[in-house]
Amino acid sequence: MRREIYVPPGGPPRVERPDPAIYAIMGEEAIFAMLEDFYVELGQSEVADMFPQSPEGLRAASHRSAAFFVGLLGGPPLYQMRFGNPAMRARHMPFAIDEAARQEWLACFNRVLIDAPVRYNFPAEHLPGFRAFLDGFSGWMVNTGPES
Ligand code: HEM
User: If you measure from the C-alpha of residue 65 to the centroid of ligand 1, how many angstroms do you get, rounded to a whole number?
Assistant: First the structure.
């Protein structure tokens, strides 16, 4: 079946990067732990079928994402060092991501962020900026329209 690729009309998002103080405060280990827990949420969500089905597979996938988030939050560019150019929209193209899938993905992240200051030492004052980044950037991962 031919798939119509949806391009968000605003183009690439103009979102502010999260504050680099986040990495300075959390460190690499806590960011990896946060992403592991996020992937556990994804594995139990409405979009679970897009992700690896085994716990080990989910854990391995979470580590690729965590490498990206370490750099994004102000740490070393682990993702680029391990996997090359992030080209995030292109890397998401194999998956049909519509607005409903994006909302579900954000809901999973939100569940993890609620306790993030206590569980992963996420600096609470930087949560609003991080949420705004996730909201804006995830819009650019949408590649499938509502009626595809
Ligand atoms: C702020 C927005 C997002 C960021 C920064 C992000 C980041 C990433 C990263 C770094 C990877 C790993 C790529 C690799 O394997 O090298 C990934 C994989 C993936 N992402 Fe996203 N993502 C975002 C939004 C979304 C959304 C909205 C969905 C929709 C459900 C999604 C679904 C996936 C899937 C299915 C994979 C592949 C998982 C696997 O390894 O099997 N992502 N994402």
Answer: 7
With a 6 Å cutoff on the Cβ, whether 59 touches ligand 1 is no
The CATH H-level superfamily of 21-139 is Globins (1.10.490.10)
Distance 93 CA to ligand 1 centre (A): 10
DSSP, collapsed to helix, strand or coil, labels residue 12 as coil
pLDDT digits (tens, 9 = 90+) for 56-114: 999 999 999 999 999 999 999 999 999 999 999 999 999 999 999 999 999 999 999 99
Q: How far apart are CA 59 and CA 28, in angstroms?
A: 16
**Ligand 1 center–CA 64 separation, angstroms:** 9
Query: Quick check: pTM over 0.85?
Result: yes
Q: How confident is the model at residue 1 (pLDDT cuts 50, 70, 90)?
A: low
Print burial letters for 115-146: b (CB count within 10 Å at least 16), e (below 16).
ebeeebbbbeebbebbeebbeebbbbbbbbee
96 CB near ligand 1 (under 6 Å)? no
Q: Which atom of ligand 1 is nearest to the CA of 140?
A: 2
Domain boundaries, given as residue ranges, for the chain = 21-139
